[in-house]
Fold each of these.
Amino acid sequence: MMRLGRAALRWGRGGIHTAVLRPGAEVQVGGESGGIAEILMNRPHARNSLGKVFVDELFSALEQLRFDEKVRVVVFKSKVKGVFCAGADLKEREKMDDAEVGHFVKRLRNLMDEVAALPVPTIAAIDGYALGGGLELALACDLRVAASSAKMGLIETTRGLLPGAGGTQRLPRCVGVGLAKELIFTGRQIDGQEAFSMGLVNHTVPQNEEGDAAYQRALTLAKEILPRAPIAVKMGKLAINRGIEVDIASGMAIEGMCYAQNIPTRDRQEGMAAFREKRPPHFIGK
């Protein structure tokens, strides 16, 4: 067993990669299918709100995943029924002075950037409330799946704040400037169906008795990504993320550079061979 800060990294049954983090919150990285990692948020007494310890644990979980070549998809899921993440821990926040608030919000922004920078696809399974920083966490993921009964919103203006962990930047890129301004200015909460209609989430599903319908749909989506060529998927994500921020000509150049990195891979050769031999490809990520 190797110690990584507050986390204990170990291999469990079935090759599940699990990081158990102790007091205050638990973040597990695992998955029932090989290649799918799950970050399971479990801070029930505070509705998964983003306090200092919890944020540190999320950073630790991301660090463990970043260079794990066996991981092909990451799913963010809550173990607290009815909530994805309630946002910043305001009880903790009110005890901070102005300088501490500024430092902590910057750390939250860095956390969301770390989520967005994971090289593999990320999916947020929103089975309950995703408010403030909780929605900013979901926005930092590549894909979002929500239960129709889930509640989402950047509610900071109702607390005398504004989104500070990427919400003012990622929401407009997701739903457009006009809708983003309306949602942020009003602090309105919307359900999963409304979120789907405006393009905030990729899929919405009716909630089930277990309260994990979004997670089940996210897992199905992850399994659809899983058999695809890992390097090609990573390069596709990189090309989109970098290209969306520049003009079309620069974006084409970025796509060309990403494509060039994929050309010498064994997986590309395997894809061509499988097509020629009329069989499913077997990609190994090399």
Amino acid sequence: MYGVQEGKSNKVEIMTTSYTAVQIQTHGGRNEDTVSVHVPDTETEPPQNKRRWIGGTIAVTVVAAIIAVVIWRTCQPETFSKRFIRKCLEYKKDNNESYCQHVFDVFERAYVGKPESKVSVEDYDDLMAEVPFNHPCHQTMFWSKTNELVHKYTKDKGKKDCFTQEDALLGNILDNETWCGKEGSNETFTDGCQGLNYTGNTAVLSFWNRASAAFAEYACGEVTVMLDGSLEIPFNPNSTFARVEIRRLKYPKVTKLNVILVTGDKNVSNCNADNLKIDLRKALDSNILYSCNEVTESRVADCSSSSDTDVGCVACLLKPTE
């Protein structure tokens, strides 16, 4: 505290506080006045430090906002169109996004704006023309009720010498997908759509029927079908192979059909079953050669992981066991 005295009657006292305020008190007779004056605190943080603090705070806030947006986008479910294009790019192993976008646009035109039950197989004609098959036609593999096993066989082999519908571009993209349009809408929907278990001209069923027809018409030379020997009727008349594919195998383009009948612990059918010897042969072009081979499930598994690259589509399966 600092004090200044003037005469005997008046006294001026200047007292500084730690709160940057100065109080001046005057005392004389009956009159007592107090005046408070705020002055800058000599220990206040310099302005440049404040600017640095504010700038750092803003930078941290911006980074946090960016991270929040990235996390939000990552957590958002992938749309059908984005998934279609992503799978297309992964299959083609290139960055030609414009091509994949074009394929999706052609695909969408088949069903968008139409009632789900009024999408015909012909509506996918443009798509089939736009995306033709390009695998060796004599390495075509059909299947019925052997989905998991046949795809393990075609995808795990060291040399790609068997191709199913799902190993081609469109089949690979749309396998296990469900989609549909709605009348008056230009969008693709995935909720509330009928899948393959629904009979009728739905967007999904019509696509697979059209794609399966094109797949069979593309086949040539010796082709193969893998059937399930644990079923009493391995050649099911309601299957896609029976309804669509086998009837489109025509001689002389196709010369032979190899039936691989997968047997297991609960095998109930063999190659002598009437369902194969009579029903299947009757559905097959009579000029096409036919063979049936019973192959154990373990044999299929062994051939799936075989490193032998000098074999054809079914050579490993038909090779005599040692």
Amino acid sequence: MRFRARITSKSVLELFIQVSGTVTKLAKVCVLRVCPDRLCFCPTGLPGEARLWGEVKRGVFHHFCMEGVSEEFNEIYLELMSEHLARAVKNAGSASSLKLQLTNKLRPCLTVVVELPSCPGHTRAMVHDLPVKVLPRRWWKECTEPRVWASDVSVYLPSLKTLKNMVERMANVGDRVLVEANLNGKMNLSVETDVVTIKSYFKNLGNPPKAVTGATQGEDPENMVQVRVDNRKLLLFFEGQQINPTVALCNILSNTLLHLVLVHDGVSLQYFIPAS
């Protein structure tokens, strides 16, 4: 097995720092899945819990080289403490490059090398050896990408900062929040108790083209599709996510799943919250 990757672009460095920070906010333990075409963050969790799935495409790396456990199973699964990775890359924003490498230093390690500019023509390096557990193939099925069901409605998200503020206020009122959206670019958030009801309305958000063209013929675009989820899990996502996405989507599978998607260049984050 071999894995070596290098990032030299400042914008990609910042994105990688943000993704690592998001993962550590949402999960204590993470599996780094190294594939020929991408690097995946797979926080571990119990079935039925909210799950994060992060991806960094191979194309954003200046250099990316890997050999999996075999020619047939050309992947590597590394379990590590997500906080360790976030700390190691935290100060890489001003670095000239960031290197990741699978090494063996008495035990398997993910070695993170942050190269910082020093005197003209010179660099200094900070090296972090993060202990990892190389997962055998029999455990790989525990770290598979969450299945993406065909959603009943998909809508672009409004300002994430605005949503975070709304969800924070609702979390002080009730344990569950109702998320609704339709094919006319509308989305509502609401929380209800015996004493009070709070509801926020968003309109003209727009729908992805595929969501509209894939709608059932004759379906009323004003019909709202809804799912009720744990307010704390939704708030955890908005508090933890750190990237500034170019695309942010809310997909709803009626009364079953809330699927949030954030994309920026070759980096994506998906968050799956089951109905409660």
